[in-house]
Amino acid sequence: MKQHCLWYYTSPEYSLSLDTLRGDHTADIVVIGGGITGLSTALHLAEAGTDVVLIEAGEIPSGGSGRNVGLVNAGLWIPPDDICQALGEQDGERANAILGGAPAEVFGLIKRHGIECDATRTGTLHLAHNAKGERELFRRIEQFQQRGAPVELLEDEACRHKVGTRRIRRALLDHRAGTINPAAYTRGLARAAASVGARLHEHSGATGIMRQGSDWRVITAEGSVTAPRLVIATNAYTEDHWNQVRQHFFPGHFFQVASRPLPDEIAGDILPERQGAWDTRMVLSSMRRDAEGRLILGSLGKGEGRPQAYVRGWADRVQRHYFPQLGKVDWECTWTGRVAFTPDHTLRLFEPAPGILAACGYNGRGVTTGTVVGKGFAHYLIHDEDALMPLPLRVPKPVRAKPLWSSTYEGGFTLYHTGQCLRVLT
Ligand SMILES: Cc1cc2nc3c(=O)[nH]c(=O)nc-3n(C[C@H](O)[C@H](O)[C@H](O)COP(=O)(O)OP(=O)(O)OC[C@H]3O[C@@H](n4cnc5c(N)ncnc54)[C@H](O)[C@@H]3O)c2cc1C
User: Fold this and answer.
1) Residues 186 and 308 in one domain
2) Probe ligand 1: pick from 32, 59, 68, 311, max atoms within 8 Å of CB?
């Protein structure tokens, strides 16, 4: 089993191989971070005629944007009422409305810019793994339907037909959602942004920022960009201590395991319409198939650093539980990505200093969130009006005891997976 991210190798959109930033430059706006948030910001700014420079530390995509499951989900992980509880009624309903419409934004951009990313819009499936899970789905369906969202409860045969397992009796089908190859979507955003004039640079990590008059100067190893406004879109991959973003989330991980392509004679009944799915377990299992028919399983926690036998053992266990009809599966590759968690499970949009915008803490929901945050940031920077952002800018409280949060989460995930492997948990 190889240790690499499947999506980089199966992306229909090619890498742009962009130049490193060299020398001193100026722009209207600098964006740090070439994931979905940064690229959506740069694309929407450049489309409006703004002179924008984006710098990315690695290659596009290096962060969560290229490594995720590829679920184009509506809303956050927590249900709409919980969002209102965390953010207050007014901001909560605003987040519910903008993030509920976010899959349409993603699929709209894909269409408008001809992004080849194996997009399917057949919905996503939230699978109840036991009676408690079923009650959770009923709660979610009620809350979504109160807000007019096109969601549906699938039961028994209808459910088996869509998922291809006898283990699940009830599932929530969200018709707003779908799946993509996330590396291809991110590369497509970069291509689209460059085509409308955004200046993008790879291998150009910011190493510091400093005030220069009323402007901000962003320093990289071989150059600098000076601009009056700055967007920090480094999210879970924020490494340096020259900015405050790291104070506002605690890092966790999510790993995935992909099979070799499975022909339809063997796997044709598994997610035949290519919905992405995940279950209601406390430590969820995600499952989807890609354009070439691979089965891709995932869960919270670190795959990297664990023995391969452990990761393979977990994948075998989940596959045999849900899809025993496959027999023994040959696993092709595995990879891990970093997730920015917050204690209240909601994102952070804030202004760390005058003229600087930052976003982080998507809690594993960033394909849609990053896309609409980028659009909202661009609108705010051009029109000084925040109506398109899922939340107004807030002054966040730094997360306390971050190492404790991270180690508690990781320890809990490991214990749960060990329980699954040992069949203590069914
Ligand atoms: C394994 C996994 C599965 C997930 N599954 C899903 C899913 O199915 N659906 C979903 O909606 N969300 C999912 N998520 C979450 C989603 O991937 C992220 O929330 C989203 O990609 C964040 O995008 P971003 O642009 O904000 O950050 P990122 O994509 O992480 O981009 C940040 C970028 O900043 C760069 N950077 C860091 N420091 C510097 C610097 N100093 N200078 C320049 N650049 C820098 C990094 O190299 C990186 O490219 C998942 C996440 C993971 C890890």
Assistant:
1) no
2) 68
